[in-house]
Amino acid sequence: MGVIRTSNRKGILNVNIEIAKYCTGESELEIGQAIYSLIAELYPVCRSITGNGFRQTLETLRHHIQLKVHEVPSGTEVFDWVVPKEWNIRDAYVKNSKGEKIADFQKSNLHVLNYSVPVNKIVSLNELREHLFTLPDYPDWTPYKTSYYKENWGFSLSYNEFQKLEEGDYQVLIDSTLENGSLSYGELYLPGEEMNEILISCHACHPSLANDNLSGVSLTTMLAKYLGDCSRRFSYRFLFIPGTIGSITWLCLNKTSVNKIKHGLVISGVGDAGNITYKKSRRGDAEIDRAAFHILKNSGQPYEVMDFSPYGYDERQYCSPGFDLPVGRFSRTPFGRYPEYHTSADNLDFVTAYALGNSFARLLDILLLLEGNRTFLNRNPHCEPQLGKRGLYDSIGDNELAMLWVLNLSDGRHSLLDIAERSGVSFAAVQGAAELLRRHCLLDVSG
Ligand code: ZN
Questions:
Q1: Residue 11: pLDDT over 70
Q2: Same-domain status, 239 and 321
Q3: From the CA of 206, how far away is ligand 1's center (Å)?
Q4: Full-model pTM
């Protein structure tokens, strides 16, 4: 990844001040292009919550990061759920009496109801209609439909095509299997100086949809690749899982070790043209919530912060009351608020390298804030130290205020983020001041 400046490889802790420099302009766009390329590579694959499409996707990601692939057998009880049978599909179509295919899996995997059981029979138009899905409001688009937990079969097609259907017999074929197998997920653990972990989770179970969920999968991959090259204070755990059942399964298998997770993010929908949106964790005031808000507020770009609700992606499971982990959600336009969501219009034209690079940069800002959010102790707490004789007034210029705040609040009880929030000074400026004061032996790290 040529976008990373060599100076950043020295380690995260010392580079926060540089964030604004390296996450702008060309490098941001370059990383966006790398993420976009990975989306385009993964786009044709027919994924689902289980099966070979999911495995193939993990294999592609393994070209970039050393993911460990886990397989959890069908039938495994995970809390109140059971790992489902494994679904695989080779072909599917509906043919009219003239032999013309009016829905063809080979042209788009969205044409098949995801998790359709196998079928091969002749049906009347009336019976066929009961198994068809369309979008009358967007007559050119094909909807993405699933039936994971209720055995069914079906096809999606555009409303325009649907209206052309004539009375008569139709041949329906779905060459799929739904059998005992396993649920696959990918996990990457990057050890840091501390055992405390930052969890980054994305769902990877959708077929040919670009923003939901390939943008999250691809950005998370590039983020893991980037952080793998940095020295890290926190350990990082990246999860590439099927939505809902994947996080439930992972939490069930790892329930005794989740107390290491100090911060977490669910990443999804990060490539559209909308503003960055952060959804708070259930706690609402966790450090990750405050860090995300601070970064977005100081980003100079429009943004939105949403309160937690028990509706959404895998944050629902991480933030269930038995876990209540500090996990928020990072996206651009929230799902359901754009008409392209879960339709064939969420395609490679719907996501841009610019938006992907911008999302990457803000996400990295948030992580770097967490990495650098230390607590210090003022070694000269009785009255102000004389800064002039140390040459500090000259050297910090406009950051004088930040330095005075850091000295005043560094009593071992206020983190740098506390100081930034209370002073109204950006975290980057507060951190820069703290670093300078520490170099002049005026501060000690206390936490
Ligand atoms: Zn979705």
A1: no
A2: yes
A3: 7
A4: 0.93
